[in-house]
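ok trying this again, last paste got cut off
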Amino acid sequence: CAWTRTPETVVDSRLIALLDFGRSPPLAAGTPGNTIDFARTGDFVYVGRDEHGRGLFLKPKNRRHASAIPRTAGALQPFFSPNGEWIGHVVGGVLRKIHLSGTPVEDIVRIGRELTGASWGDDDTIVFATPAGLHRVPASGGDVETIVLADTARGESFRWPHMLPGSRAALVTR
């Protein structure tokens, strides 16, 4: 059986999104890895730069401007928890999280190497990539489980994991 498409079934799958930063601080140029992430609510977090330096900024869907997230100076690689209430990020080789209510930053685990992306699953685990492979850790902290090692001798690396609903699989760029 062959799959064919008739002109009547062709769907324009382009998605065009305009991110209006208004008068918010701009994205920080030259930062490694992901610089922006979107919550299921439509809010987004990004690595920006203002007069105080580089940090994380939150732009709620229903507000015109972004605001700095306190205690995130130097943060990189932001990503939302599934409920949109927490933001994971990395500072100085430490994977951290901060609740948007303003609670103190919590360390999850020392990575000790370059993070090439992270994603927070529905099961409250975080999958993260490093040049060495793909790993998982409970969002509350604890032991890191290696899911798969990269074949670095062949130039293999993993980047930008994205946990799928149900947390049983992740999309990963290799």
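PB: full thing came through this time. The CA atoms of residues 118 and 128 lie 4 Å apart.
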